[in-house]
Amino acid sequence: MAKDPKTKPTPKPRKTPQMTLADTRLFLEALARAHPDAKSDLVYTDNFSLLCAVVMSAQTTDAAVNKVTPALFAAAPTPAAMAALGAEKIGQFIRTIGLWQAKAKNVAALARQLVEKHGGVVPGDREALEALPGVGRKTANVVLNVAFGEAAMAVDTHIFRLGNRTGIAPGKNVREVEDKLVKRIPADLLRDSHHWLILHGRYVCKARTPECWRCVAAQWCRFPDKTLPPLQRAK
């Protein structure tokens, strides 16, 4: 059957070239000016509540986690109290978030391990963090960055998208993007870049349609198919 001559094939997305190191600094400095007080959207009071909140935020929005954690942390504010609460009762607090059953088991287990192996204190080294139930590299990086002030780069879906779309750190997988970001971002900007990039990806450089027309760093971004404002796109 002959193809309809009026039907135009959908053009393939053009590949984004890698951003220069000089433009990388300018790009991030623009984000810094836009988010001078950038920090995690998760609500927490100490390293333990931060760790639990990050574990629970996997494949769930921070907003959804923030709705369930105040009551949970009030009931179990310490690793010992959380371990005593147990997975079943923890689950009763967090039923509205995704994968709540697995997360309840992990939070109970990591609390027990903190008590048994770390004296109830969240460890500040990667190996010990990643040995905790439910804690992978991304979660460990968040805790190291936020709680211990390390220049660790936790690559979530937003940062992975920005790394590739903007050209700041193109990579085929999360670890490749992380390694490039750590290598290419100036040392004095690295720790805070974690927050700037997440916020930018969450609210401006969105997954389906990036809002390039209101991006403060658009002039340094190498994305070749920048979007126009809705009214201009409709013409």
Plain-language structure description:
This protein folds into 2 domains: 21-39 and 152-214, Helix-hairpin-Helix base-excision DNA repair enzymes (C-terminal) (Endonuclease Iii, domain 2); 47-146, Hypothetical protein, domain 2 (Endonuclease III, domain 1, Orthogonal Bundle), CATH 1.10.340.30. By secondary structure, it is mainly α. The chain starts with 20 loop residues before the first helix and ends with a helix. The radius of gyration is 21 Å and the shape is elongated. Helices cover 54% and strands 0% of the residues. It is built from 11 helices and no strands.
Condensed summary:
This protein is 54% helix and 0% strand. The chain is an all-alpha fold and 235 residues long. The protein has two domains: 21-39 and 152-214, Orthogonal Bundle (Endonuclease Iii, domain 2), CATH 1.10.1670.10; 47-146, Endonuclease III, domain 1, CATH 1.10.340.30.
Supply the CATH superfamily name of the largest domain.
Hypothetical protein, domain 2
Number of strands: 0
Ends apart, CA distance between termini: 33 Å
In angstroms, what is the radius of gyration?
21 Å
The helical percent reads 40-55%
Structural class: mainly alpha
Number of domains: 2
Shape: elongated
Count of helical regions: 11
Taking pLDDT < 50 over at least 5 consecutive residues as the criterion, the unreliable ranges are none
CATH topology (fold) name of the largest domain: Endonuclease III, domain 1
Explain the layout of strands and helices:
Blueprint: H1 21-34, H2 47-56, H3 62-75, H4 79-93, H5 100-118, H6 126-130, H7 137-146, H8 157-165, H9 174-184, H10 187-203, H11 230-233
Helix pairs in contact: 1-10, 2-7, 3-4, 4-5, 8-9, 8-10
